[in-house]
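can u do me a favor
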């Protein structure tokens, strides 16, 4: 974020805002939030023979692993300034979800895809919108695009399972993320140590808790997310930070933890139609994001809460620009049709603007039109330049929508503009 946002009063924000105000139970002055502690854990890993003798000696003996405190009954000590920012950001999210209107379906699909892409980019997984769209149809020529496509599946699972944020369903989100790449660990808690940075837990910048402590910590996190006495954005920020601190799975913790944000916002009724692309806001300053996670582990939940609130403003602004671009693409297609469109052609255009890569078989299955209508409608849109043929995938011819691809790439470009630090 380029600059800090000054919270503004929200007069006349409506019934929803009044209800949220009554739920706020945060202290006006920051108090203590439980920070992580540490315990010595015996290291049983084999020495890395590729390392120097000195490095091997340093990677011996016990290491310090985090002890994650329970938070199910804790009151978040968020300052009045950040609480006001949270309230403004929450109202902005509700308005964003509402303003897309009743025909939010195309935007919902594209915003979920865009959130998945931004979340993956935080993990340094990048690919263009075209490659990602083709990967979703089964193309495996780009490893990064394949992983990002799996993240789209995880985000979709998170939304589908948001009514019940149980430990089992959180693992289902992870299973959707990693089943294609690592089925042996997908949807399973890790069974050994992991660490962040360094070549062993002895030289790491952070070592999450022992795997034996994961189940209890995750049940505590689920209990925290079930509460209804905390402003939702505060709750989502802390739940995400706690999940990252627990680091319950062997791989994909960051992407699963960010999928959890969208699920919690849907669970609490902040969003009803679309996914807020919060990760696209976090991309502006990933160092500040990781610093805020570290501050949380040291007993300060205010930094990550403020980071999320700030990120929602840039996320909704970017999302509105994407929605405007897609509306423009859709309007231009209809305006340039040579004749009054049939119902099947209308449904084809409506599919094209939220599925930037498609096959005739996919069009037939989703819209229910006949094979002859599908190929005729594709030919019409191809003549206009609204569709463009590309390579075959699994023996099926694929068309892409260049204008939609361009809109998605522009969204990613806006999100990826880092601030100077």
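np, heres the sequence
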């Amino acid at each position: 974020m380029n600059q800090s946002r000054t919270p503004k009063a929200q007069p006349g924000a409506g019934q929803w805002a009044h209800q949220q105000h009554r739920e706020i139970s945060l202290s006006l002055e920051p108090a203590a939030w439980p920070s992580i502690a540490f315990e010595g854990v015996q290291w049983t890993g084999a020495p890395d023979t590729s390392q120097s003798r000195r490095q091997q000696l340093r990677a011996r003996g016990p290491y310090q692993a985090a002890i994650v405190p329970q938070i199910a009954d804790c009151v978040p000590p968020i300052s009045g300034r950040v609480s006001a920012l949270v309230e403004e950001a929450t109202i902005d999210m509700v308005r964003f979800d509402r303003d897309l209107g009743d025909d939010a379906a195309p935007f919902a699909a594209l915003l979920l895809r865009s959130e998945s892409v931004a979340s993956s980019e935080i993990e340094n997984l990048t690919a263009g919108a075209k490659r990602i769209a083709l990967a979703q149809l089964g193309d495996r020529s780009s490893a990064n695009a394949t992983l990002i496509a799996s993240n789209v599946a995880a985000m979709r699972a998170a939304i589908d399972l948001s009514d019940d944020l149980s430990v089992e369903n959180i693992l289902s989100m992870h299973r959707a993320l990693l089943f294609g790449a690592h089925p042996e660990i997908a949807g399973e808690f890790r069974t050994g140590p992991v660490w962040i940075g360094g070549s062993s837990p002895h030289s790491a910048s952070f070592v999450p808790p022992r795997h034996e402590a994961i189940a209890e910590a995750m049940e505590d996190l689920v209990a925290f997310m079930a509460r209804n006495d905390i402003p939702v954005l505060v709750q989502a920020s802390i739940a995400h930070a706690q999940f990252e601190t627990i680091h319950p799975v062997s791989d994909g913790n960051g992407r699963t933890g960010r999928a959890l944000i969208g699920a919690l916002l849907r669970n609490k009724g902040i969003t009803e139609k679309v996914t807020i692309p919060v990760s696209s806001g976090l991309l502006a300053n990933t160092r500040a994001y990781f610093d805020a996670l570290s501050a949380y582990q040291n007993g300060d939940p205010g930094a990550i809460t403020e980071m999320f609130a700030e990120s929602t403003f840039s996320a909704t602004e970017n999302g509105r620009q994407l929605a405007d671009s897609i509306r423009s693409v859709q309007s231009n297609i209809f305006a340039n049709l040579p004749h009054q469109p049939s119902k099947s052609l209308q449904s084809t255009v409506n599919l094209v603007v939220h599925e930037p890569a498609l096959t005739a078989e996919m069009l037939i299955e989703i819209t229910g039109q006949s094979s002859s209508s599908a190929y005729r409608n594709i030919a019409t849109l191809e003549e206009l330049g609204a569709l463009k043929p590309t390579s075959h995938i699994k023996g099926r011819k694929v068309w892409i929508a260049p204008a939609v691809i361009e809109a998605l790439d522009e969204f990613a470009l806006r999100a990826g503009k880092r601030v100077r630090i």
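The chain has two domains: 75-193+214-321, 339-411. hope that helps!!
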